[in-house]
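Q: For a teaching session next week I want to show students how multiple molecules come together into a single three-dimensional assembly. I've collected the sequence lines for a complex. Could you give me the predicted structure tokens for the whole thing so I can convert them for display?
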Amino acid sequence: MVGLSVGEKNFIKHGIAQDLRNDGRKRLTYRPIYVETGVIPQANGSARVKLGATDVIASVKAELGRPSASHPDQGKVSIYVECSPTAEPSFEGRGGEEFSAELSTALELCLLGGKSGAGAGIDPSSLSIKEGKVCWDLYVDCLVISSDGNLLDALGAAIKAALSNTGIPRVQVREAASSDEQADVDVSDEEFLQFDTNGVPVIVTLTKAGRHYIVDATSEEESLMSSAVSISVNRQGIICGLTKRGGAGLDPSVILDMISVAKHVSEQLINKLDSEIEAAERANEEEP
Amino acid sequence: MRGIQLSFSNTQKLRLEKALAQLESISSKVNSNATVIVADTIPVDEDAALKGHGTLEMGKNVIATVCGVVERVNKLVYVRSLRARYKPEIGDIIVGRVIEVAPKRWRLEINFSQDAVLMLSSMNLPDGIQRRRTAVDELNMRSIFVESDVICAEVRGFQHDGSLHLQARSQKYGKLERGKLLKIPPYLVKRRKQHFHHLDQYGVDLIFGCNGFIWVGEHVDVKDAMVEDQVNKPDPQNTNSASLLGSSEEPTYTPLETRQYICRIANAITVFSALSFMVNLEAVIETVTLSLSLNLGVHEMLEAEFHVQVAEQEAERRCTSSRRK
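A: Of course. Below is the structure for the complete assembly, covering every listed component.
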């Protein structure tokens, strides 16, 4: 990315201070969000989210697997992010790997809850088929096609949309002969179960630039950031996860303030996203 | 349509398509032969025609190898492709970004296939005195432009090796601050007599670089900048620190009203480039006025509805102007 001159940086900074950003938004306004679902036919569910010039695709693939020994009654969810070199030259070669890993970790922290399982957007026990024997493994793969800042929020929204687009085949478990044998399952290819995505949180990233913080920063604004806090909030306004990027430290009171702002912003974002997802699903049904 | 990253409702889609079809019907009357796509036959009058860029001889026909507009200069026939990089012409006013400070020269990114070169000797020194550039001047080049500064200059000419030289021999050229740089496809900017515009009613400077880089910024009086530079000039060491200090804690903000206009103008240009309409001063001002009369927020200009309205307005404008002809 080409750097900005001092003059431009100051212009952006002052704009943030004056509550009128470079594209005319206020500090807490999102760019128009655009959702398209069912973009990958092979996946169980997929969605593409555009947030301004940021463009990401998320797909969900469900596979049968064995639950882990520590949580025999739960399925597994894993999130991978890949940054396409077309998005930015720095993603080429190994450059994107580190960033991809950072994004996947942040997404797992924000969406999958803590080690205890609290705050998980996707209830892992709903993925269980037969305790200790078979469960669904969800592989959430995300691809960054074009990057203009605020990737985490866009990825979070894309995953939410992809999950609500996901249909998981209904599975019948035939009674296995003995307990140590692999369970015999019958996967239906006609009946699909929808996910309950009500609990999936949205991610709100507050980027601190200068003395103020903004939501949905463009990459220009991100180049000025001192630190950014990503907070995932679900429909009930409960914080499900939180991560921070950037070198500069933050005062605890500022973080608390950010959290309350994020809660407020997330309400609008969830409503907007829900209506967009619904519209996308409707468009899908109209043109099979 | 491909470039637009918006979700239109069905009615909006219909209205946009109607407006675009209307525009197309006007333009096709004028020069339907001039635009070609790949593998179109270009009508050539005689065999002696010189075949230029974007053409290929197949049997007896001359066909186009790129999409664009057929241009004829005497016997030469070539296709000027759309959506290509900027092709400089001498005298063009361009806006560029410094990417390197090299010995006696700055290298600029101007959306050309190469980087442009601005020699230290082909620009006015801030003190305005005409003299030979000394080694001291060369050492102080960073006090004039540093990397990633946005500057405005004029195309001076090509060197033998094809590289592009720029010049900035007037006070109107130079560093641009307090504003934003927009990048649009270069073919949307037409070469005109005037590329610098001072919009008095808004207090905004607008520079249409021929390379598709457009600067929208707060109005700066050229004279003031010169006086300021003269004050700073005596000791280069001080200049550096002073300019650093001055820029890091600039006391005066751009007034909110001016900033609103800057953002409005910038958004108007963004809408235009999304719709692939020619960007010029009249159209921009008209769009800004439209947005003001509709009482739209600055950011609402980037939404689908306004795109449709701009397209309709443009269709109407071109219809009436073509009727007048």
